[in-house]
Amino acid sequence: MHLIVGDDRLARPLWAASDPLLRDYYDREWGMPVRDETGLFERLSLEAFQSGLSWSTILRKRPAFRAAFAGFDPDAVAAFDDADVARLMDDAGIVRNRRKIDATIGNARATVALRAEGGLPALVWSFQPESTPAPETFADVPTQSPESIELSKALKRRGFAHVGPTTMHALMEAVGIVDTHLVGSHRRGSSGVWTAEGRRA
């Protein structure tokens, strides 16, 4: 069974069917278009921190992440110094991984620099494919794509770190660039970006 019909008669995948936090995230946020710089920088940062961990762990720590990283304002994070790194490494509310913290600060600086080329949203959304998958089972959901591979390369060329093809595919799913909601889910085709059949809306 790949979809669970809840008490509200809405079908959701197994991962979003039981935990209230994940269910709310699935219903309200995951797969909806994010086109602003701060929103994309936050999602990119959280996807990098999630690597090797469960997404529920990141969601539960999200308020602490936002407080620790100045609301993910790229200008503010780009100005972080060694004292900020030390502060972050002492913050039990977030994931205290030095490489990921350094990458987030570096990515903020790269985001600021990218404004000269049109900005992070324009670059990320330029990799939207012509069609999106129509998965019926979890096995049908890809973990990367030609577009996520190219997005990863484009970001790395511009100084970004922790932006591998799998992480970038997860970002593309999270911000609506692709729609990998299972066919039959109540969220399939709900973003306004894609139809339920996988065509651009």
TrEMBL record:
Entry's Gene Ontology BP terms: base-excision repair
Keyword Ribosomal protein: no
Domain of life: Bacteria
Gene3D superfamilies: Hypothetical protein, domain 2 (1.10.340.30)
Record's keyword annotation contains Chaperone: no
GO MF term set: DNA-3-methyladenine glycosylase activity; metal ion binding
Keywords of the record: Metal-binding, Zinc
One Pfam entry name: Adenine_glyco
Name of the protein: DNA-3-methyladenine glycosylase I
UniProt source species: Agrococcus jenensis
